[in-house]
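Box 3.1 A note on notation
Throughout this textbook, protein chains are presented in two layers. The first layer is the amino acid sequence; the second is a token string describing backbone geometry. Keep the layers aligned when reading.
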Amino acid sequence: MTRLGLTGGIGSGKSTVAQMLASLGAAVIDADASSRALTAAGGRAINAIKDEFGESFITPQGAMDREAMRALAYGDANAKKRLEAIIHPLVGAETHKQTVAALEAGHSLIVFDIPLLVESGRWRRQLDSILVIDCTASTQIRRVVLRNTLAPEQVQTIIDAQASRQQRLGAADAVIFNDGLSMDDLLDEVRQVAQGFGLSLP
């Protein structure tokens, strides 16, 4: 069994690659999805967030107010650490549970979809290898503007807040350069990488 970390900057196509890996038979564990579930209405992190940050960071529906928390965390590094101290152990526990289930199901390749893998620093020792989905910054901006209707300046701000392209490439054991590829070409690249990491394909 291989534990493969999957990461890439916003607009790189990481989520598409994760879906392709799942379709090929890999078990995909999405850390971001776990985090969102924990902070949704009724999520296991809500009471701790309310105790730590106050009612104003909880929506009327009972979820974490993501916009308010994002604004606070961007301007206050200590607030970001306090939130991570709540979220990370819970994400870790959920990831462990899903990993055990994937092992029991006999998966040979478990993919951990982690947007901020390089930034966090805590994931590397839990992984056998890291796959980075790479593209140019101009491609990132173009894709996100089309997808989310954000202004290019807003997308650039998000890119600047993430690990640099050089930092991600420096952490990579394998890279897919997803720039100018058709979906079929991208799937061919994903198949090759998946086989290289031990996934048996028909």
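The beta strands are 2-8, 27-30, 109-113, 129-134, 174-177. The chain has a mean pLDDT of 93.
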